[in-house]
Write a structure and sequence with these properties.
Helices cover 39% and strands 32% of the residues. By secondary structure, the chain is of the alpha+beta class. The strands form 2 sheets. A 7-stranded antiparallel beta sheet has the order 5-6-7-8-9-11-10. α2 packs across α3 (81-101), α2 packs across α4 and α3 (81-101) runs antiparallel to α4 (103-118).
C-alpha cells in the first residue's frame, strides 16, 4: 500500500534503463511533486526534470537515475532526520512500485538504490583485497587517493589518482575521465608506463588489478601498434569508485557539471 500523501509513480524500464516518473494533467500536482523533491534535496535539471501539462495533455516529473541514486544516499547520509525520512519514504515507494512492475524492474531499481547507499561508505586508505583471475592471485593494498578536476581546452576533466601496492610493487595510478563529444558518455583512460617495474605489460596488469579490486570490474586493455598499452574505464567503474570517501564528492560534482541537461 502506498504511503499516505504520495502519488502513484510509474516505474518501468526504457531500453534497459530505469524509467521513474509521476504523470498528471493537473499542474498543481506536478508542482507539488517537484517541490517535494526539492525539499528532499534533489536539484531540478540535475536529478529530475519537469514538464508542465499543456491543454488536456499530460505533464510529468521525471526522476533521472542520478536522482534516485542521490535520494538513496540522502536516506542514509541526509543532513537531518526530516531529510533522511523524506528520502527513505521516496525510495521505499519507488522500490515498491518496481517490485509490482516485475522482476527485471525490481532488480534494476534495487541496483540503483544499492549504489546510492554505498557512496562514500568506504575509504581508500588501508583498503586491502586478495583475489584470483584466471588462476593468477593478486594482493592489492591501497595507500591513498584523490580526485581532482582539471580544465583542458575548455573541457572539464576528472583525474583519479590512486597510490597502491600490487604484490608488493608500489605505484601511483592516474585515470583521466572526460565526456565523449558525440554522446557525452563518461570514459576514463590510463597509459601503462614503460619505466614501471616489469615494463608496460606488468604495469597494465597491476593497474587492472587495482581497478578490479576497488570496483569489481576490470578495465578494457588496448595494445597499440606503437607499443603503448591503454586502459579504458567506463561509467560502471566510476560508480564503483564513488563508494570511497576520498573520491565520491568530486566524482558526483564532475558528473553533475558535465551532464547535458
Amino acid at each position: 500500500m502506498l504511503k499516505v500523501g504520495w502519488p502513484k509513480y510509474y516505474v518501468g524500464l526504457n531500453k534497459g534503463a530505469l524509467d521513474v516518473r509521476y504523470r498528471s494533467t493537473n499542474p498543481e500536482g506536478i508542482e507539488r511533486e517537484a517541490q517535494r523533491l526539492r525539499n528532499m534535496g534533489l536539484e531540478e535539471g540535475v536529478h529530475f526534470s519537469v514538464k508542465m501539462p499543456e491543454g488536456e495533455g499530460m505533464g510529468y516529473v521525471y526522476i533521472r537515475r542520478e536522482g534516485l541514486t542521490y535520494a538513496a544516499w540522502l536516506s542514509v547520509y541526509g543532513k537531518d532526520e526530516d531529510q533522511r525520512s523524506l528520502a527513505a519514504d521516496f525510495v521505499k515507494i519507488i522500490l515498491q512500485r518496481a517490485e509490482e512492475a516485475g522482476e527485471d524492474v525490481r532488480k534494476k531499481a534495487e541496483e540503483v538504490v544499492k549504489e546510492g547507499k554505498e557512496r562514500g561508505s568506504l575509504t581508500l586508505k588501508g583498503f586491502e583485497k586478495e583475489f584470483e583471475v584466471d588462476g593468477k592471485k593478486y594482493k592489492v593494498k591501497v595507500i591513498g587517493g584523490e580526485a581532482v578536476e582539471e580544465d583542458r581546452g575548455g573541457r572539464k576533466l576528472l583525474r583519479l589518482k590512486i597510490t597502491a601496492e600490487v604484490d608488493g610493487v608500489r605505484s601511483e595510478y592516474t585515470i583521466t575521465y572526460g565526456r565523449r563529444r558525440a554522446d557525452n558518455v563518461a570514459r576514463g583512460f590510463a597509459v601503462a608506463r614503460a619505466d614501471a617495474p616489469g615494463g608496460r605489460e606488468a604495469d597494465a596488469e597491476r593497474f587492472s588489478a587495482v581497478v578490479e579490486a576497488l570496483t569489481g570490474k576490470r578495465p578494457k586493455v588496448y595494445r597499440m601498434k606503437n607499443g603503448k598499452i591503454i586502459m579504458e574505464c567506463g561509467k560502471e567503474h566510476l560508480e564503483g569508485f564513488m563508494r570511497y570517501t576520498e573520491l565520491a564528492e568530486a566524482i558526483k560534482k564532475w558528473l553533475e557539471e558535465t551532464s547535458r541537461r
